Known about the structure:
Blueprint: E1 10-15, H1 21-30, H2 38-50, E2 54-60, E3 63-73, E4 76-86, H3 95-107, E5 114-119, H4 125-132, E6 136-146, E7 160-163, H5 166-181, H6 192-198, E8 204-210, E9 213-224, E10 227-235, H7 244-258, E11 263-269, H8 273-281, E12 285-296
Parallel strand pairs: 4-5, 10-11
Antiparallel strand pairs: 1-2, 2-3, 3-4, 5-12, 6-11, 6-12, 7-8, 8-9, 9-10
Amino acid sequence: MQRxxxxxxxxxxxxxxxxxxxxxxxxxxxYPKRPFSSPHIKNHIQRILDGNGRIWTxxxxxxxIGYAAVYPVPGLPNLAEIEGGIIPIKQRQGFASxxxxxxxxxxxxxxxxQISLTVSSLEAPAAHFLLHHNFFIEHEEHHLQLDNLQSQPxxxxxxxxxLAPHETAVSxxxxxxxxxxxxTRWHQPYSPDEIDIxxxxxxxxxxxxxxxxPIGFAWIRFPNTTTAEIEPIGVVKEMQGKxxxxxxxxxxxxxxxxxxxxxxxxxxxxxxxxxxxLYHKFGFRHQSTTTYLAYNL
Length: 297
């Protein structure tokens, strides 16, 4: 029978020092496949803290052995995402359960109603651990990819794409997004402040104009010089079911084609059958699935 560590042998406390070298060291042990440098890890932790997130560390005999972070989901104030883990040499000894129970108890005193974590496979150790602790499958997201964009037979769509300046994107995008997705399970509203922070200078916010009025949008990011990510993309509800979504996607892909982009990626909820059907018609193919596991507080 496996013995759980004595509670008095460990200390769980809130963490606020993003420049901690021991923290960087355990992070690289917990996520050995992530090619993150020390400055990248420190910046990641600082962004969590600056975004009203909270971080806890767990130590055993004054040695840091794990951490957990909780941070709010933009636009959904009662939901939070979690991340973290225990260093390999200390795993399967009850420390992760102790840390998780501590966080849940703390969050019961907050306005957070649900926490979630993403896993790439339900066979992953993290998935087994969370499901054992009463997490459930909240939804799945498919990651699609279109290769060889330059060879796709696209034609300029009969619509006007407008590359919005930063100020226009910040003020207009949240309303367009709500008009497109309100009432759907994948609706995740944005505030102007969130757009102002997350819209990178290298991103492109494209608005689909109909009679000089925006009726759709596509947020484009460029991970490298030959790849583009479209997330999100949509058309306002009163214009849905009339071919405008297809026209918008065609116009965006045509624009990216003219920019020399070779590969396009996007994500879609697994149960959004209409969007998945459209993307497959344009040649997008399934690459992987991310599962969102959730726990109701």
